[in-house]
Hints:
single chain, six-stranded antiparallel beta sheet, 9 helices, 26% helix, five-stranded antiparallel beta sheet, disordered C terminus
Amino acid sequence: METQIDFLQWLQHDMTLKILVCLDDSADLIRVSAVSRYLQNFVISNGLSRQLCMRKFPRLASIDRVVELSHNSDTDSSSDVVGHEAAERDHRAYASLFRALTAFPQTYCIADPVSASSTDNYPEESIMNTLDPRDKILHRDSYWSSKGSDDPEVPETLIYNLTANFCVITEINLHPFQALFQLDHPIYASRFVRFRMGHPKSWNEIEHDFMESQECADDKFIWTYTSEIFPVAQENRLQKFKLLEPVVCIGGFLQIELLGRVQKQAADGRYYICVVHVQAIGRQLSPAFCMEFSGPSNITSLKYDAEQFKHVMQKVSNGHNGSLSTSLLPIQPPRQLAWGNLEDLIHMVNAHENGVEYEWMEDDDFEMEMLR
């Protein structure tokens, strides 16, 4: 056989590094690692997979350590390894993470509401209503409404818990509410909107029910990302706000800040903001990856499950990418929404015990309403 050499071995370390950091996909780094043992050691020992992740997603720099989960024992494998073994573990985790951040299927990422800065009529106009894409449920308008304000510059915030504490968000959508039951059918949209993502200052404080107590939770979070300010159209439709770049959310919480009030309510002459529905679209990285926060200084650990990663990538390669509808969520609401609606109904009945008659629908009417 002809003698073959790896020409990169003849280059200085810095020159080889400068060449390899030009690669912009972890799959390319893996291919390079397969060329020779020298290149494999070079890619791993210089942490090129981690560097690639940091270049594309700078917020990953907050990760303090990597833990690779094992399904063969009760403990996490390689959590305490050092030296070359630790470098190999980090290479596997970050190479897989980059693929997940760019190739995992997109999905709807809002799980539960946490708080609203104000609510005009709780629970009928609760933030819980914004999880459902419909603006009318069983002949009743469904939306969140702020309290009224004499000052059109008073902002409002809505906070949501995402489906995982580690995900990447690409788009956030907002549907303002139009009050068809009021004169001239006013639309209660804000003038602008801004988005923040982050994690709680204390996980214990988040266990409090801010919706029930009607408290604002804005000061309970550390927001590690703040978007640009987007203009909101004064229109009754789902409005899509695509972020300038995919945003890695470490911690799993989203704040929607509604800036500037436009519409006065004729009944009291005060400004309101009302929202029908909110969506956050992105890639949920769990259970292949998750974040763990520990200690008083919130040490951030990236947990990597190789088996779960392979399972998701196998589904992607087979064409099961879970493509989204272009507008609305699935018709069937998530389980937590159904339970939340039951709780809202109980609150509503208890709040109007005397002198209120409720309209009950026939089965055929109910089925027709659900199909609309």
